[in-house]
Amino acid sequence: MAERYDVIVIGAGPAGYIAAIRAAQLGFKVACVEKWRNPAGERALGGTCLNVGCIPSKALLASSEEYEKALHHLGEHGIAVDGVSVDLGRMLGRKDQIVGKMTKGIEFLFRKNKIAWLQGHGRFAGSADGLWRIEVENEAGVELEEARNVIVATGSKARHLPGIPVDNRLICDNEGALAFDSIPKRLGVIGAGVIGLELGSVWRRLGAKVTVLEALPTFLAACDDAVARECRKIFTKQGLDIRLGVKIDEVRSGKKGVSVGWTDDQGAAQTLEVDRLIVSVGRVPNTEGLGLENVGLTTDERGFIEVDDQCRTKLPGVYAIGDVVRGPMLAHKGEDEGVMVAELIAGQKPHIDYNCIPWVVYTSPEIAWVGRTEQQLKADGVAYKAGQFPFAANGRALGMGLGEGFVKVLADARTDEILGVHIVSANASDLIAEAAVAMEFRASAEDIGRVCHPHPSLSEVVREAALAASDKRALNM
Ligand code: FAD
Ligand code: NAI
Hints:
- This protein is α/β, with parallel strands linked by helices.
- 32% of the residues lie in helices and 26% in strands.
- It contains 14 helices and 22 strands.
- Strand 10 (209-213), helix 7 and strand 11 (241-243) form a beta-alpha-beta unit.
- Flavin-adenine dinucleotide (FAD) binds next to helix 1, strand 2, helix 2, helix 3 and strand 4.
């Protein structure tokens, strides 16, 4: 006899586990199907984000930053350190411990909220009497479950390139690149996107000579131009060798490492010899074996499950959220969609303003933005004002030895409404939250400018940039 639920969620990444928790909070009987196994073979919740994404990458970014600080920056403070070295095993062990703590934390939250974790691969088997039938397959066999509502949150996986076999030893996607067993002397990265820059930075700080090969002729094309220009300068100075407009021709791996044949932006053939290669050229939605055909669910030409603005599919009671649907592949975007869908099922009227979803790249300095870039405003013919303020003029930033970067605020020329905020700086990931709140409340630049900000703090730069945008009256410039 099939067990009957109000809501079955397929996938327990940030989109799925948050959807399950919110649905349980709203009083529904909830189950979540999850098949993930960690390298030790244990079942784990948390999806890409907790196991091989956001959390482990940020742990390694933090560790490698400490190392770099000890090597190169403590001297400025008058602190001498000798014999600084890396114990990579311990560094990776720390990362794994954090991952374990976080994934166990989701297990605790599932127990607390009485969410049934159905361990195994979930797929649509059909429908009957207004109930969706979901099969869950694991080593014990196949079980049938039923629910009036199903939330698909199966996430994404790394996109691989034809002719470049990822073995996660020499040629790696994100999974292998978070677990190298030694620090490569020479590291190649294909794709100067978020993963390429974050993980490229980790291994550069730990001692690798890193070459990044990017197909597009522009660096960080999604960012505001001023941000992209500043970051290219900073990352190049740090030692990342970034090549734009390249075409990858042939990749061969052998005993000595990996050889990448590529054509540069002048059309000249080049070869890059490296010990390891990271392939970070985007991610693709996970719909394999989901049984979409059994219920008539379709995907778009890029493989995403088709949904409307509120994540409804064309089937009644079936929703899809997170990386498996359109929109940015960001954990917090999936989480917010999870909350929205659970509240929709409960008959509430939730809403997401996709324009107010912040983006962050966790390099050093960090890059964060929300809203539109200057080039987008120009293309859309919007009359705007811009204000920019550097961290070099902020006492807290100088005290911390982190005077690089700036905040740029873009506001409507007539109404002063904030249209976009772009930050390059330490802790930009935290600073951008103020801008996201302001934009959700449709604040003007003057609103931020008139709010008291703590002194000395990095947040004063956000205020100064807002004042500069509002009526060119930054106070410390
Ligand atoms: P996922 O996290 O991919 O989870 C989907 C889950 O569904 C998986 O656990 C999978 O096992 C399960 N599943 C799939 N199919 C089935 C099935 N048929 N049956 C049962 N289970 C199934 N985003 C940020 O916002 N900030 C960051 O700092 C950040 N860093 C990242 C770093 C890296 C290296 C990577 C790779 C990604 C990073 N991301 C980051 C992106 C973020 O990880 C994703 O946007 C997020 O994980 C998407 O959440 P999701 O729940 O949609 O899918
Ligand atoms: P990405 O989309 O950020 O970058 C991929 C890059 O590879 C692009 O610049 C693209 O032009 C380039 N590229 C594509 N094909 C190529 C080819 N054949 N040769 C050379 N370059 C090529 O994808 P990435 O870095 O793999 O990350 C995947 C997703 O994971 C991101 O889009 C993001 O949504 C998420 N993520 C988010 C993070 C964050 O929020 N801090 C951190 C890491 C990942």
